[in-house]
Design a protein that fits this description.
This protein has about 400 residues and is mostly helical. It has 17 helices and no strands.
Length: about 400
Amino acid sequence: MPKCFGGLVHDMNEAIAIQPATNPAEGDAAPGSGPDPASGVARMPWPRRWGGAIASAFDWVFGLVSIVAGLSLLSVIPVLNLLSLGYLLAASGRVAASGRLRDGFVGIRKASLAGSVLAGTWLASLPLRWIAGMAGDADLVAPGGRTARGWHTAVLVMGVLTVLHVAWAALRGGRLRHFAWPAPVRFLRWIRTPGKFPRARDAVSDYALSLHLPRYFWLGLRGFVGTLLWLLPPAALWIAAGRIAPNHGGGWLTLLGGLVLLFVAMHLPFLQSHFAVEDRFGALFEVRAVRRMFARAPIAFWIALLATLLFALPLYLLRIELPPRDIAWLPSVLFVAFIFPARLLVGWAVSRARRRGAPRHGFFRWSGRLAIVPVVLVYVLVVYLTQYLSWEGTRSLLEQHAFMVPAPLTSL
């Protein structure tokens, strides 16, 4: 009996895992499939084991690409961009809590399944879109004619068939191979299966709940508000300085704004990771806790901050000109691809500090402090110049993708 939405309910690890086989009859065992000396259970032949490993690796990479594409798309959609920020914060928090970088790749297998469904749907709709194009051409040549009516009928028929094909492929697991062949015999058997629709409904519901979207949204909303509160003072000082002549105090306001942003950039990435671990809004403002953690892992903090700010700098070039609305999400792919690993490194640095009970030697602490200053100074200078280069003007001072999604205020 086929299982409805089997791929939606089970993790891909279970779907491709090689299950131990029963002991084969003597003389029938394939090469490399003899009994395991430790367990006495026959192993699968090595080609199948390697094939399963390659399929699992491909599925993981496809899931990572789907995650990056999904976060990029969400980051330019109003309100939903908070999901993107919440996911990045959660990834950093998971690494900070466990100390393992792999824990930051949250929901990779589920993203692979969603990406397979979307890619399969796009491929399955190619004939429908071609027929729709022919129908449009027929309307231009002879509106309302027999040929045009025939093409419109074909669009209707193909549309129904495409919907059925996509739904049936999703019911069988949603992988690309399910979109390649409709498996009509299996479909006829499934039609006669009792209780198929309630199981499909429950599977879809379980999959949606397993994504934890409300949690990511709530985490992203609080992270956005807290981060904005940190970035408002330096941005306000620079905006005010731009409206005052340098000889009337504008220069001093510019200097003060730079010093405030210097302090914020040193602490904010780690405050965000600390907030994600503690899941408390107040943790976003616990500077002393971050400074204590820095004393326990100064070099790791310097590496993480260097990666965060260094990866963010080239992306400011993409703000010089507003991209067309149809491809507004494409620059976001670069933003996410650069910022995602930086978030994981920040979580790694926080995890090292959390595991150590005593501060490091003063030499390492002061070396870390001195090494951080030039990195942050370069970042502050680039951010200051951005207001004169970006199409957003002074508003770009608040839209710092090193700490938020690519365009948080524009998308909201």
